[in-house]
Amino acid sequence: MRSFAAAIAVLSITAPALADALNIYSQRQPELIQPVIDAFSAETGIAVNVAYLEKGLTERLQAESARSPADIILTVDISRLAEAVEAGVTQAVESDVLAEHIPASLRDPGNEWFGVTQRARVVYAAKDRVADGEVTTYEDLADPKWKGRICTRSGTHAYNLALVAAMIHHHGAEAARAWAEGVKANLARKPQGNDRAQVKAIWAGECDISLGNTYYMGLMAGDEEQKAWADAVRIVYPAFESGGTHMNVSGMAMTAASKNATNALKFMEFLVSEKAQEVYASINHEFPVRDGVARSDLVASWGEFTPDDANLMDLAGLRGQALRLMEEVDFDG
Ligand code: FE
């Protein structure tokens, strides 16, 4: 009898605890978000389960439909956020906290997705082979003076497609195509590997400049093997001739299937708290979306730049066109 009563007691404790858990599908790498998740659990006592998905986030949510255990998705790139919204696997969230701390340009007008951090897509330049001021614009990467000197990951990766979308936004499809052809003609090797692999190639002398997202400089600097790669390059913020430096976001959304909207909202609001934004800035070397949170010392050391003013939703809308263009010029071929 006693053990039965004890079992009931355990159940009554366990049931609310389970209901308190929060499930996240993340396309962000574990080491990038675990510190923030740990801080959230420590502050709220809410247990967080994270499933890391390389790709296919939207497809999985569609397949699981209302049975999905996920409450939150974390991903990078506006195209992936827009894709999830378009597929109907997210839900709108009304929150004064999110509206106050995330600039309007970095969240969905319909409140389905919210930017958490920003990153710039920049040029990594060999310290010893590229002079100061030698590269200042994205357009310049198509100049024949760079022949055999540029490395990049696949032209159809989301990061590069967003950049091409921005090129279309500024100059139109024909000019963007000519640009992509020009950059392709300047490549030192076929597109391959990730952003960090390009910096390694610069370090190894295979090329002189590469395209990459800013935070990888910080991640390489903190890695024993990769530190030498980072030391071989400096960050250059190129600008569009008629604009600024290309920016993208990492972001979050509440799933349509969430069974725990209260905790999900708590988590979303935590991610824009000063504490979480500081973690993103100091550990991940991303740009905080929240005003007043300082950049990491390393990021600050790269100096100031003018962010491009292209609207993220406009870039998401141009993604299909950018993909067709890159396939037509056979950028990776
Ligand atoms: Fe990345």
How would you sum up this structure, described in words?
- The chain is of the alpha/beta class and 333 residues long.
- It folds into two domains: 2-118 and 249-295, 3-Layer(aba) Sandwich (D-Maltodextrin-Binding Protein, domain 2); 119-246 and 305-328, D-Maltodextrin-Binding Protein, domain 2 (3-Layer(aba) Sandwich).
- The chain has 15 helices and ten strands.
- It has helices spanning 2-19, 30-44, 57-64, 78-86, 96-101, 158-171, 173-186, 195-203, 215-221, 227-231, 261-271, 274-284, 297-301, 312-317, 319-328, and strands spanning 22-26, 48-52, 72-76, 90-91, 114-126, 150-151, 209-213, 233-236, 247-255, 287-288.
- Strands 1, 2, 3, 4, 5, 6, 7, 8, 9 and 10 form a ten-stranded mixed β-sheet that branches.
- α6 (158-171) crosses α7, α6 crosses α15 (319-328) and α7 (173-186) packs across α15.
- The longest helix has 18 residues, at 2-19.
- The chain is globular and about 60 Å long.
- The termini are far apart.
- Mean pLDDT is 93; it is low at 1-18.
- It binds fe (iii) ion (FE).
- Fe (iii) ion binds next to loops.
Keywords:
2 domains, 10 strands, D-Maltodextrin-Binding Protein, domain 2, binds fe (iii) ion, alpha/beta
Which secondary structure elements does this structure contain, and how are they paired or packed?
Layout: H1 2-19, E1 22-26, H2 30-44, E2 48-52, H3 57-64, E3 72-76, H4 78-86, E4 90-91, H5 96-101, E5 114-126, E6 150-151, H6 158-171, H7 173-186, H8 195-203, E7 209-213, H9 215-221, H10 227-231, E8 233-236, E9 247-255, H11 261-271, H12 274-284, E10 287-288, H13 297-301, H14 312-317, H15 319-328
Parallel strand pairs: 1-2, 1-3, 6-7
Antiparallel strand pairs: 3-9, 4-9, 5-7, 5-8, 5-9, 5-10
Helix pairs in contact: 2-12, 6-7, 6-15, 7-15
The protein binds fe (iii) ion.
